[in-house]
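Before the break, one more example. Copy the sequence into your notebook; we will annotate it together after we see the structure.
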Amino acid sequence: MYEHKTVALLRDQALDEVADDVDKREGAIIFDSTAAVAVPMSEMYSDIDLVMRLTFADSSDGEYLERRIAEHGVYKKEASRAVRKGIFIGTDERPFKVPIGSHFGLNNLTYEVIEKIVDGEYQLRSEAFGIIGNQDYGELLPTEPLDNLGNATLTDVLVPGEDEETDESLYAKYLDHINEPAFGGNRADYKRKIMDIQGVGGVQLFRAPFGGGTVRAVIIDSTFNVPTPETVAFVQSKIDPFEGQGDGLGTAPIGHIVTIEAVESVVVDIDATLALVGVTLGQIEPLVVEIIDEYLAEVRREWIKGLPLILRISHLESRILALEGVQDIVGTTFNGSATNLGLPHEIPNKGSVVLNE
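Here is what the structure looks like once it is written out:
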């Protein structure tokens, strides 16, 4: 807004206010005086520009964006810690009892044992916040000696850890709040409350699937995959716990019976024939598989829009054709069919990949 308020402009404006019978040439006293004042004045206008930018949500960021939209009751989703499954076997090859609160390490990350699942299996919580806690798998080492512990393994992600919400996501949530006011158990209210729960990346809502007063909420996790039973149970307990369902013990309004379900997935087997130049099938196959993974992940992220998903053969083939050494691709099929694959409510997951030459 004030980009034009340069030092030179402000100096010249000040000189214009000086009588013409005064020496205003460069090097004169009045010239040097006005030039010295113009510098802080230009900085002041720059600061005003910054204040104006940070005042409005559509141009603000960071702390100021958070403060601006908090006035409307919208808050940033904070980073959370992953909950993982650990399997513990004693030196006698039997399930090992691990003390609650004990700590184990893997690849510079530490995990705390927080709850028993069954004998030899426990929930562990990452001490690091964010998606980094979702990533590692393998052998755990105790931070303090545990007698008779034979082997400890970090396995499934039960509730995904999440990074702090980005400014872009926060602003989009703010616009949703303004354009679709959440109130008293309406669709926007359910969506907002469920999306605020750790591990949830998206939700689709269905009205009265089991009769009047019932709501079905299907969720996808924050990694845009099928959520674990533990994540589903966690969300159910927050929204409408089974103990006293419909009594308003969660965030769902009293009288609403809410069922949380995991999105279903469809395994997609992919076949294709490639014409290659200068590379072998063995060299190109890992790159093709990586492209397939990226494409399926991109399609899964679209699930949150609530529209049917479509896997398009042309979209996948165009990406594979961009690989160096791939001259042509023909005969691509999804689950044995040479047509696009429509998924009304499900998400796609990679099955077998067969590449021919």
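DSSP finds eight helices and 15 strands in the chain. The first helix runs from residue 7 to 16. Try to locate both features in your own notes.
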